[in-house]
Amino acid sequence: MENPEDVEKVGREDIGYSALKVAIGMVPVAGPVFQEWLPYVLAPPIESRRARFMEQLHERIKWLEENRGLNIEELANNEVFVDVVLNAAASAQRTSEEAKREALKNAVTNTALQLNPDITKTHIFLRYIDSLTEMHLIILSFFRNPTKWFSDNNRDFPAYMMGSLFGILTDAYPKMKAQDKFVEVLWTDLNSYGLVSTSSLRGNISGDGLRSPYTSSLGNEFLNFITFDQRV
Fold first, then answer.
1. Does a structural domain hold residue 231?
2. Is there a single domain that holds both residue 161 and residue 117?
């Protein structure tokens, strides 16, 4: 096996990432060789994620300048905007979920347009994006307006006389039915953050009740923070 000190003498771009990954797999996790090689294994994907996210942000800011009259020079002196960009870029490095990366990009967008909530909520919402998963966001978005979700997806709203929130959710996303306990954990997370208006997905609700929103006012603010429609 190559000496890690020899590897350090080689430019990163000359390191065969795939071969290096295989080599690392042959080394005990606690070994000093692993500790020396670990930065070289992690650096390429981390840098790639960050570069891709910053490129997407550049494209979005350029679009805002051309279509929304955004003053880029003013942004450079906006401390809140700088905070959000730095936090969003760090979060983008930690996730491969495109829905979360899109949420981060939209958070930056809304901050640039000064559509963000107050600074305290802004930082809390960024923390939410970082800790929640794509599946959390799917569930939260669905319950903002279940009726609209079915309409937008060209589906009839299920004809329930009575039913549960879990039932209507799994009508929309059948694959979640086999993950009932896990979905309940996700709902508990959303409730603990104050983003939904009821603590349980279970319990019978009238058909009309199932059409109602189940996001809280804070949940709606959060969804606004992570949503942006370029068509508007």
1. no
2. no
Cβ-Cβ contacts under 8 Å for 145 (sequence gap 6 or more)? 213
Hey, is 154 helix, strand or coil? coil
Give the type of residue at 44.
P
Q: Which domain holds residue 219?
A: 134-225
Structure tokens at 148: 């609209």
Whether 220 and 157 share a structural domain: yes
Dist. CA 32–CA 29, nearest whole Å = 8
Beta strands in the chain, from DSSP E residues, in sequence order? 162-163, 205-206
Tens digits of per-residue pLDDT, 105-159?
999 999 999 887 788 999 999 999 999 999 999 999 999 999 999 999 999 999 8
Are the CB atoms for 37 and 27 separated by under 8 Å?
A: yes
> Which residue type occupies 33?
V
Query: How far apart are the C-alpha atoms of 24 and 108, rounded to whole Å?
Result: 37
Secondary structure letter of residue 114 according to DSSP = T
Domain final position from 74, 99, 131? 131
Say how far apart CA 149 and CA 142 lie, in whole Å.
6
When divided into structural domains, the chain yields a total of 2
Q: Distance between CA 35 and CA 202 in Å, rounded? A: 48
Spatial contact of 25 and 33, defined as CB atoms under 8 Å apart: no
Confidence of residue 32 (pLDDT cuts 50, 70, 90): low
